[in-house]
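Tip: read the tokens left to right.
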């Protein structure tokens, strides 16, 4: 488990205000689930118009930063719901002087309130929390509720790339994507012993690979 408390969180978050997109959930009525969208102006937020890539559950930002450096022509929106973790990702971006990343400190569940349909070209789900208990299914980032969100957000030729160390979660995801209108490709049951090139290793991936665990990967596109 990651520590939920870190020193000087308030000040450290304030120092990263320029990287975090502000929002309010006032536009969501929790009693009725009524949605009043309040879309972000991402061209203004990034200061340019460019293909938009999202990483959901970015953790401390290792993948996001490397991806941004390799793809300076893309805008990257990194989403993470734990503030103590997100602040470290923001600080990494600042240390590395990366300009094409912005952060949303938010649960991915709320994305449709703020993001326009067909606005995203790529979604990365890297080592998402597997939530193995069946009563936690709705929290899995590849459960039907989330796939419905991704379907709205993705542009027509957009794709989702998922990596995980969890065989059970991977099998669940294969089934969930297939049953919910996605076509699967690039399925790997052992990414690090495959011929896949250009892999960006995430913080969790580093840990699992050092333990000798296989890494599972897939790409999903809408039919
Ligand atoms: C196991 S960590 C992986 C971090 C990073 N992607 C990596 O590979 O090193 C999963 C992250 O997803 C975040 N997360 C889980 N559910 C989320 C949700 N519904 N919305 C946003 N972030 C979420 C967690 O807070 C956690 O930081």
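Filled-in amino acids:
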């Amino acid at each position: 488990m990651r520590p939920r408390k870190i020193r000087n969180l308030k000040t450290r978050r304030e120092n990263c205000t320029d990287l975090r997109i502000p929002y309010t959930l006032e536009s969501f009525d929790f009693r009725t689930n009524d949605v009043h969208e309040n879309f972000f102006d991402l061209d203004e937020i990034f200061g340019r118009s460019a293909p938009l890539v999202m990483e959901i559950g970015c953790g401390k930002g290792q993948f996001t930063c490397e991806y941004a450096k390799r793809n300076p022509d893309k805008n990257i929106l990194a989403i993470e719901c734990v503030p103590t973790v997100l602040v470290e990702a923001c600080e990494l971006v600042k240390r590395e002087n990366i300009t094409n990343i912005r952060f949303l400190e938010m649960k991915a569940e709320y994305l449709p309130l703020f993001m326009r349909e067909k606005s995203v070209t790529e979604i990365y789900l890297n080592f998402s929390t597997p939530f193995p208990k069946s009563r936690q299914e709705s929290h899995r980032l590849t459960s039907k509720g989330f796939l419905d969100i991704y379907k709205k957000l993705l542009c027509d030729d957009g794709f989702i790339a998922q990596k995980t160390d969890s065989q059970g979660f991977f099998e669940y995801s294969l089934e969930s994507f297939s049953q919910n209108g996605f076509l699967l490709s690039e399925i790997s049951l052992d990414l690090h012993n495959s011929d896949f090139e250009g892999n960006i290793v995430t913080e969790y991936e580093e840990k699992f690979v050092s333990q000798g665990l296989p890494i599972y990967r897939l790409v999903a596109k809408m039919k």
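Strands lie at 28-29, 34-35, 52-56, 75-80, 101-105, 120-126, 154-164, 182-188, 216-222. The chain has one domain: 49-222.
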